Amino acid sequence: MFMNFSPARYIPILCLSLSLIPGIVNADDLSDGKALYKAGKFSESATKLEAAAKTNPKEAQIWWQLNFTYHKLKKDQDALAAVKKAGELDPKHDFASEAGKYEQILKDREKSAAGTSMPTTTNNSPNQVNSGQGETTGGSGSGNLTEQLVNGDVYVERGIRVDVERLRTVSKEMRPTVVKFVVFNRRLTSRQLAVEGDRVLKFLKSYLNGGDGYVVLASRSAVTVASQGLNKNTLKDLTEQVAPQMSAGQYTLGLERLAKGLVTTRSSTRTSTTGFATDIPHPRSTGIGRLIVPIIIVLVVLIIIWAIWNSTAKAAAVAAQKGPVERQKGDVLSQLNFLDDQIRIAEPGVAARAREGRVAAGTHVDQASRILSHAKSVAEINQAASLLGQAEREIARARAILAGPASSTSSASNTGGPAPTGAGVPPKYSNAQTDWATVDTNERGVCFFCSKPTYLNELTPVTVNLNGQQQK
Questions:
Q1: What is the pLDDT of residues 115-168, one digit of tens each?
Q2: How far is the C-alpha of 452 from the C-alpha of 263, rounded, in Å?
Q3: Which residues lie below 8 Å from residue 74, measured CB to CB, with a gap of 6+?
Q4: 133/114 Cα distance (integer angstroms)
Q5: C-alpha span between 132 and 279 (Å, rounded)
Q6: Are 407 and 347 in contact (CB under 8 A)?
Q7: Cis omega (within 30 of 0) on the bond before 283?
Q8: Which pLDDT does position 433 carry in this prediction?
Q9: Dihedral angle over CA of 115, 182, 215, 286, nearest 10
Q10: Handedness of CA 254, 61, 46, 111 (dihedral sign)
Q11: Is the CB of residue 252 less than 8 Å from the CB of residue 163?
């Protein structure tokens, strides 16, 4: 079957579509967040914008919009951190609506944050989170990691801004659940943090309710939790929720939220693993983003399947119509050959007129042949058939000239008898296969025009002038 399809040509389409998916999801969350903000739905707006920040934490426009949403929610510390993050990502402040707007908003947020008092938190409201103002880079004190965790529940390396006292307060508020914090001023990967968490669990098992407490570990690039009573799915969701704060450098805020989330959603199902780690710069998208990605992939696959089916259907249609037209071309060529024989024995004047029709017919056949050799559509097949139809009409016109009064008179004058009968129509022969050796010589003959053997009663006798001699 004739086909013109190459699956490889659709691979770039699939690759391009997949490469655009993260941008599409992020753009939807940002647009939805802005729309919800304008509608006064600030909590919903914050959820959308935080999802956008997880997908693309280096997009300054997202943090700039988050600043306004947090401000409406009275989250002054979060608003200030979002403004600073936007400024760090885009020092030219192209995200601002006008020159000087960034500096004005930054000043207002610093003023609001400075006036924010630190509310106390009780175990009756574990979801309340404070943005501590006691952050320093001095670390958590002297002693090795194990000693500081046993004595003060917190270990922080020097050089990273963390409110050590706030984390110690959070650890006390989480009792009777034991929560200890470890913060490294290095870019440790999630795997490295998990290994460190296993080591801490081993040495502090007796201080963690037999290993049933939590050790929250963080670095500048990842966060994880080590515990023997850990629900991995819950932890995965919690670490993704705090990823925006951690990537913005709000380590105290992120760790506090993570710890309180662990205690609030504590699962009774125990697992044999020690934790689940999340790399801060690459959190996974949630919500509508998880739904859009498979939908887009399905649509792309359906488009490719449709393209394959459409190409195959067209090829089948072309092949179905090409065969009959090829047979039509064969018939026209036979008619041309017969016409050539007639022209050669015709009177010169008549032959010249008939030859004009023969030339026109040959031109149409040549054009039809070229189209058929490269035909890729039904329209091209139909065009070739139309040209062959024109060729047949030209052949019929030439035959009419040869069979006209002038031809008949000429033949009669040359032979001294009547004009040959049926000179303009080629004889029709039976398609049946005949063993001519078994036919009596008095019953068989040969066609003058095509040299085919046939029965005498199927032939029409004609008399022609060949080289000055009359032959029958």
A1: 654 333 333 333 333 444 567 776 677 778 878 888 888 999 888 889 988 998
A2: 102
A3: none
A4: 9
A5: 24
A6: yes
A7: no
A8: 62
A9: 60
A10: positive
A11: yes
